[in-house]
Amino acid sequence: MSAGEHAPGLALAADATGLSLGIVAANWHLDIVDALLAGALRVAERAGVKTEVVRAPGALELPVLAQALAEDNDAVVALGVVVRGETAHFDYVWQTVAQGLLRASLDSRTPITHGVLTTETREQALNRAGLPGSAEDKGGEAAAAAVNAALELRTIRSS
Description:
One of its GO terms (biological process) is riboflavin biosynthetic process. The protein has one domain: Rossmann fold (3-Layer(aba) Sandwich). The protein is about 45% helix and about 20% strand. It contains five helices and four strands; from the N terminus they run βαβαβαβαα. α3 (about 90-110) links the parallel β3 and β4 (about 110-120). The longest helix is centred in the C-terminal third of the chain and has 21 residues, at about 140-159.
C-alpha cells in the first residue's frame, strides 16, 4: 500500500462557481511552495472559484494570515514546507502551525486546509509538490479539500 492510497485526491464534490478561496503560501523553499501553489490554483480554476493569494514570510505566519483571509473568503488553503533536516525546531514549528491553522479555522468558522508539507528530507517534499514526476500533488489536494468543505458548509448553512 502506498502513502495516500486511500486519500480522496483532487475530486471536487460539485460545481463551486461563486465561492472564493484564499491561499496563503510561505516564502521558504520557494520552488516547492510555488509548485504547491500552482496545484492549488489549477484545482481552483477547475472548480470555478475566485482566488486571492498572499505570501507569508515563513510557516509560523501562516495561521494569522489564513485567519485574515478567512474573513473574506469561503475557504482558505495554507501552503508551506517544513523539513526536519534543515531546522532543529522542526517539531515546534509544525505543531505550532497545525494548531494555529486549526484554531483559525474553528474561530472563523471557515475551512482552512493544511497544505504544509512536513518531511524528513527535501526530496520527500519535492515528491509531494505536484511537479512533473511527483507522486502526489498536495497543493491541489488541499485546495480540493477546502472547496469541498466550503460546499458542504454552504449546504449546511442554507438548510
